[in-house]
Amino acid sequence: MVSNRIFSNTGSGVGLTTAQNTLIRDNEIYGNDGPGAIQIRNAHAITVTGNRIYSNTTGGGCFCLRSDTITFSGNAVYSNASTSSDGGGRAGSVPMLDRHHRGQHLPPQPRTVPRCVTAV
Q1: How many Cβ atoms sit within 10 Å of the Cβ of residue 45?
Q2: Which of 59, 62, 104, 111 is 20 to 30 A from residue 89's alpha carbon, by CA?
Q3: What is the pLDDT of residues 72-101, one digit of tens each?
Q4: Which of 75, 82, 89, 94 is nearest to 25 (CA)?
Q5: 31, pLDDT greater than 90
Q6: pLDDT, tens only, 45-57
Q7: Residue 78: in which H helix or E strand, if any?
Q8: Cis (ω within 30 of 0) for the bond into 110?
Q9: Among 27, 25, 33, CA closest to 9
Q10: Range of 84's domain?
């Protein structure tokens, strides 16, 4: 998926389920209602790079579940909002949760997540 404007969706702007070896590059992804502007589930070897990801709600920039080898680099990510499992608000960054950092917001870039799952 390269060079698209993805906006105003009820749900995620980009949703990948059981995908592998996929590139999401140079897209403008904004105004979507999540979870996450980009939602990745049960996927392997996904690269997300060079995108502008902003003004998304419910899950923020990127939401990963039961996926591995997700590379997230070189993206401009800002003004996103999310709600954590405890109901607390989060804003501005990319919530990528993995087994090593359950429930914590990780740096948005560059970051290769060897295994990512949502907080329980």
Answers
A1: 14
A2: 111
A3: 889 998 888 865 454 444 444 444 444 333
A4: 75
A5: yes
A6: 999 999 999 998 8
A7: strand 76-78
A8: yes
A9: 33
A10: 5-116
Q: 43 with 19: CB under 8 angstroms? A: yes
Give the DSSP letter string of 43-77. Answer: -EEEEEES-EEES--SS-SEEEESEEEEEEES-EE
Summarize the confidence of residues 17-39 as an average pLDDT.
92
What's the rounded Cα separation, in Å, for the pair 51 and 118? 22
Tokens found for residue 18: 């059981």
Number of domains present in the structure of the chain: 1
Residues 95, 98, 104: CA angle, nearest 5 degrees: 50
